[in-house]
Amino acid sequence: MKELRLNAYAKVNLALDVLQRREDGYHEVETVLHTIALHDSITLRESGEGILVTTDDPSIPTDAGSLLYRTAALLREKYGVTRPVEIEVHKRIPVAAGLGGGSADAAMTLIGLAQMWKLRLDRRELYALAGRLGSDIPFFLSGGAAVARGRGERVQPLAPLPATWVVLARPRFPVLTEWAYRRIRPAEITCRPDIPQLLDAVARRDLPAVGRLVGNVFEEVVASHHPIVADLKARILRGEAYGAAMSGTGPTVYGLMANEAAARHLAEDLGKRDEVDVIVTRTFSEER
């Protein structure tokens, strides 16, 4: 039985700005992303009949409407593949937390199935397929650091940051992307991240400057309904953090930390709150 195992890495948004609503119903965004070492594990097997998705997280859909099922179905239909596949997902990335777990899983499934089925897709074809499946899936095909524009599908790779400790503080409730986008009003945003300055700091690998410049326009929207988001950010900034921001549409708040000891100390402090899950990880990049 042919089997392939892959890691699907989470991300944080170093910056996220929403510019305006597009005619196609999506929003025009500009975001700077970086993968982190926290990851799900994907196992692909040629077994059974058709497409089967299994997971150890009961909150993840596995039916024909699920993202991973649609990923496999898209490849089978477009390239006339008849081989069966079982997609097994071991979840470590929290769901609906702003860390891109579902999109990362889909990207790795896309890469893995193209390899397993010997489809010999070039970079352009892979990115086009990923864009059809979801706006931020193209980023996860390469990971590392990147700036993404359009609805998130136009990805420009950046040199990754030096390995940096990251503390993730996730309140124990989901925030759906659709909910956040329905509530944001781009014309009313008064405080936006300075993305050109951030890109310059990333290029210089200047971690203190990166920390000062991180920002996310969704923070105010989410914190207005969930004040714990603002509280977590303030607590992180009282520690030895270069900076802190909410990732994606939340609710996870991350801190870029000066060193491992500071990260562990902060995680211990934040972990005293029953309503928060805390993860210590690092920025991560690998060549694909």
Q: What is the strand content?
A: 25-35%
Q: What's the shape?
A: globular
Task: Name the poorly predicted regions.
Answer: none
The CATH first-level class of the largest domain comes to Alpha Beta
Secondary structure class reads alpha+beta
Main pleated-sheet profile: 7 strands, mixed
Please give the domain count: 2
CATH topology of the largest domain: Ribosomal Protein S5, domain 2
By CATH, the architecture of the largest domain is named 2-Layer Sandwich
Q: Averaged pLDDT, please? A: 94
Q: How many β-strands, per DSSP?
A: 11
Helical fraction equals: 25-40%
What is the distance, rounded to the nearest whole angstrom, between the alpha carbons of the first and last residues?
25 Å
Order of helices and strands: EEEHEHHHEEEHHHEHHEEHE
Counting DSSP H or I runs of 4 or more residues, the number of helices is 10
CA radius of gyration is: 19 Å
